[in-house]
Each structure stands twice: as C-alpha cells, then as structure tokens.
What we know:
The chain is built from four helices and no strands. It has one domain. The radius of gyration is 11 Å and the shape is globular. The longest helix is centred in the first third of the chain and has 12 residues.
Amino acid sequence: MGVVRLTQFRDLMDDEFGSRAAALTRDHVFAELGDRTVEQALEAGIDPRKVWLAVCEVYDVPAARR
C-alpha cells in the first residue's frame, strides 16, 4: 500500500477494529509514535501511513491487511 489518506486511515481502523477503533485512537499511547496516541500523532502531522503501520505492528495486524 502506498500513500494512506486520513479518510482511508479511518476506514482501515474501522474495518480492523470495529467499535474499538475510536477508543484505540484516543486512548492507546504508542511508543512508536513518540509516546503519542493516534489522534495526537495525526494532529502533529505524522503521516497516516506511518501511524497505520505502527498500529498494525503493535496489534499484530496480518501483513495482508496492512
């Protein structure tokens, strides 16, 4: 997967985590994102693809869905 737009990122999160997606983006602090939550990382301008890959790594999302 190449560039991930913010709307696509949100769709990926919803597809992978369902009703937990919102809480995960708001509450989980990722060391891989500089000790930020997903929302903080996106607000800081971190590329959504990098954020998605960090989430995938931590939550062991299979490579086929990354």
